[in-house]
Amino acid sequence: MSTPTIGVLALQGDVREHLVALAAADALARPVRRPEELAEVDALVMPGGESTTISKLAVLFGLMDPLRERVAAGMPVYGTCAGMILLADKILDGRDDQEGVGGIDMTVRRNAFGRQNESFETAIPFAGLAGDPVTGVFIRAPWVEAVGAGVEVLAEVPAADGPEARIVAVRQGNLLATSFHPELTGDHRVHEYFVRMVEAAGR
Ligand SMILES: NC(=O)CC[C@H](N)C(=O)O
Asked: Where along this sequence does the record place binding of L-glutamine (predicted)?
């Protein structure tokens, strides 16, 4: 197939950085704000930002139902941070009226790393990526508290407060999610990983 077009949900958050990272990963990328624009892309990135705001705007712009339909139909989606929260079937510490897109059989906790750790950076081995660990930039990030049997865990960080590690990257079928922001590091390997997922889905 020809080069797939990957949209970046452009309601709020760090949209531009994802457009740049996708272009660097040799994808055709464009912003998506309206249902007609969603219909024209082969895949979607949901950026970091504020998940409650993005979800409110998605409802307002008439995107929430089309998003759910495309996810159910197998469209590849990559969610970072707030985008990860939107892809979760279950959200802890969300707002009562917070709607998600869902699709990944996981429970995420919003703002999970705590106040003293509002933002931090750490090196993370990422399953399926050769070479150096990925630099994880975490900004008021969620973690994944539970996953269903169909979910592959791609990356974890050691817990500051106990023995068990915290899951920070997962994949289920065509859906990919990370707690952290690879679009802010200049290392485009996670975006390349997603572009390969999109290409494989189109075959
Ligand atoms: N950097 C981010 O995307 C932060 C996510 C934000 N804490 C939320 O709940 O949506």
From this structure: 49-51, 110, 139-140
- pLDDT tens-digit series, residues 146-195: 999 999 999 999 877 777 799 999 999 999 999 999 999 999 999 999 99
Would the CB of 48 count as within 6 Å of ligand 1?
A: yes
Q: Supply the CATH number for residue 163's domain.
A: 3.40.50.880
Give the total number of structural domains in the chain. Answer: 1
How many CB atoms neighbour CB 138 within 10 A? 24
Which sign does the torsion angle of CA 117, 122, 124, 129 carry? positive
Structure tokens belonging to residue 110 = 């919003």
pLDDT band at 79 (very low <50, low <70, confident <90, very high): very high
Give pTM, 2 decimals. Answer: 0.96
Q: Tokens 């900004």 sit at which residue?
A: 139
174 Cβ inside 6 Å of ligand 1? no
Strand ranges in 95-133 using DSSP code E only, listed in sequence order: 104-109, 119-124
Q: Which structural domain range is residue 128 located in?
A: 5-201
